[in-house]
Amino acid sequence: MLMQIFNKMKDMVFILLVTGFFSWIANIININPPLASSAVGCLVLVALAAAGIFISLLPGFNKLPMVFWVSIVAVAVSVPGFPGGEFIMHHTNNVSFLALTTPLLAYAGLSIGKDMEAFKGLSWRIIPVALAVAAGSFVCSTILAEFMLHLEGVF
Description:
The protein is an all-alpha fold. The protein has helices at about 1-30, 35-55, 65-75, 85-90, 95-115, 115-120, 125-150.
């Protein structure tokens, strides 16, 4: 059982490192940050993602999605007072969000392209569903942002 987890982790860590490298390159092109700090920030994000993935592969923890565990790890280390939190925040502040989305969107495109037959099988009905989901996400995010800005007294 433990060997299976390590085999899965080996592949996922490789993918995370490649993604981290491409994110670092995109970050350099995008915002021109300090190279070393930006590289450390990308490695920190890779380590946090790897920790969340490892937790999600453990027996008993795999009932919830991997994204949940990665998010929990990221939220836990960003809580003020977390040991090493200042180091993490200092270096990850040098990584642009857009630099992280570039390789992720490329992977999503490759994933859809790989399963083009399955995508074609969804027919035209996927278009209104996708538009409704995108619109709903935007509207709900806007309402939540407005509510929080009013609570903070910013807006």
